[in-house]
Amino acid sequence: MTTTTLAALVPLLPFLGALGGLAVGRAAPGFVRPLALLPTLTAAVLAVLVAVRQGGGRAIDAATQLTPTGSVPIDLALHLDGFAVLVAVLVTVVATCVQLYSTAYLRDDARYPSYAALVSLFTSAMLLVVYSGDLMVLLVGWEIMGICSYFLVGHYWETPEARAASLKAFLVTKLGDVPFLIGLFALAADTGSFRIAKVLAAVANGGLEHPTLIALLLLAGVAGKSAQFPLHTWLPDAMAGPTPVSALIHAATMVAAGIYFVARLLPVFAASGAALVVLAVMAAVTMVGSGLAALAQDDIKRVLAYSTIGQLGYMSGALAVGDRGAAVFHLISHGAFKAVLFLAAGVVIHAAGTNSLAAMSRMSGLARRVPDAYWTMTVALLALAAIPPFAGFFSKEAVLVAAEHTALGDRTVAPAAAGWTILIAGLLAAVLTASYAVRLWLLAFRGRGAEVPDHGKQPLAMTSVLWILAVPTIGFGLTAGLLGDWFDGHALTPSLTTAVLSTGVTLVGGLVTYGAWRHTTAPAARTPIGAVAAHPGAEPALVEAEAMTSHTAAYGTIADASDPADPGRLLLGPLHRHAVTGFHLDALYTALFVRPVRAAARLVRFLDREVVDTYVNGTGAVTRLLGTAVRRAQTGNVQTYVSALLAGSLALAIAAVVFANVNAGS
């Protein structure tokens, strides 16, 4: 079987699994789990085989015309280069782990068949984006992911948080997709093709007439899909969905799609220095702002959500300085350790009966109750904080080295201003990342208070995937020196300067947070905190839904808890109340967009009901009155009709005489 045939099967198998799961979900529920797991697992094996065959060498292209469309045809095309085959391995491995984890996490969920089918469809759509060699086919996968995220984030539709989050995710990403679609058409108009290879060839030959406009239009869609400032606000709220969905969205699909898209079309963006500077500023604001917000969150999943936004900022920063190898390297590394973090968080929430870090900090023994989650989460947090020799250290260093080279003029793909912006913001974000990672670990696993109730071991399906994903979290970075051929031949090894700087500021951030935590242990001992679910022994998905509801009921919001023992509150000081709300961006958007749109809708409704309907109803009323008058004249009495006829004839005769006399007198 050829490599292209194997590659075509990779997205096709999860798609067929989704169709099969939907078809037999109710009639034969025993087949749902195999149809969810086996096609995705087989796709993972095939993706690894495709990666081995491609070997980081020359890109493999294959295409057939999908349909004639006139001057710009749409092709069913595959483009397999080092980036594509490695990202496909990440997607399929994480998706397989998520499907296996979900069999236990939602074991008694009545909607599990549709959930599993949507996860498979989500996976297939992302793989279509990764392997596609045509922009229109890529767009199909791009939009299918948006639909899947709407349904999966809203899986707990009984809760108001999930309903609002799913709608918000859909609308915010669609807000970016409108200019994105216009940008795709403008790009095809300038280059004469939707084929990615032909587009890049045209760009290399100077065939792009409006590079800045096209790049900015495309960046709008990327900002929405990959949760970059200012369209990032949907991602923290999307934590209202099931934890396995959060892992899939953050580690391998959806948010990774925008970064991958820019990496695939980087020459288009590099044709405009202004667009790269805009991308650099967007990445810098995203990195720093999300780090501050993560330090203020009480919901363990919202901490991880803001963490994802910040790490995506690093990837965007690498692209802003023209190094797509560093960006994709960090994308793959981040996908491994972020999947561990979310799936381990699901185990922790189930064991503790709460998603509140404030409540966990009043519990003791949580690390002993869930040793698998404790150790794997510790490793993943070290990778997140970029502590050597874990994967996050090497991939984040690759980003900082690329920024350093651009800032010092050693690379000229992007302006030096973009390099300095990313380098400074990246070091500042490293301090914040270490700070919120240490805070999460201390509050979750070093709590003091009542013992966490023991309700037995966590299911093997949930704990085994943590160790599977911990392997690349620990070891993937060590392959940095061997992966140059897969990443455009660029070296991904750290430099001494950035390694010392970033590791130094990381240690400072972690130690300062530890000191703040020690300072707040006294208030923690005397301040009770609630928000613990009533049934910690129930199905994990049910515990999570109850935890969200109880958190909002106890504190009035899913994001915050009025906890004087929170080290984040001490470190942020007056900034805390702004950071916990995401710096009031939702309120700003409500004032600038939501309220005006609703006011306009109310005006249109008023005009429709009170003006347009008045004229329409008035026309009908006049017609009814005329009909009534005519109907009353129809008495059925012959004498009445003859009398009316004679009266009318007499009136006409008199009128004729009068008219004749008037004419004779004139």
From TrEMBL:
Organism for this UniProt entry: Streptomyces pakalii
Membrane-topology descriptor: Multi-pass membrane protein
Descriptive protein name: NADH-quinone oxidoreductase subunit L
InterPro entries: NADHpl_OxRdtase_5_subgr, ND/Mrp_TM, NU5C-like, Proton_antipo_N
Record EC number: 1.6.5.-
Domain NADH:quinone oxidoreductase/Mrp antiporter transmembrane positions: 132-403
Localization: Endomembrane system; Membrane
Top-level taxon of the source organism: Bacteria
A GO MF label: oxidoreductase activity
Transmembrane domains' residue ranges: 6-24, 36-56, 76-100, 112-131, 137-157, 169-188, 200-224, 245-263, 269-296, 303-321, 327-352, 373-394, 414-438, 459-484, 496-517, 641-662
NADH-Ubiquinone oxidoreductase (complex I) chain 5 N-terminal domain ranges (all copies): 68-115
UniProt keyword annotations, A-Z: Membrane, Oxidoreductase, Transmembrane, Transmembrane helix
Pfam families hit by this protein: Proton_antipo_M, Proton_antipo_N
Location (main, coarse): membrane
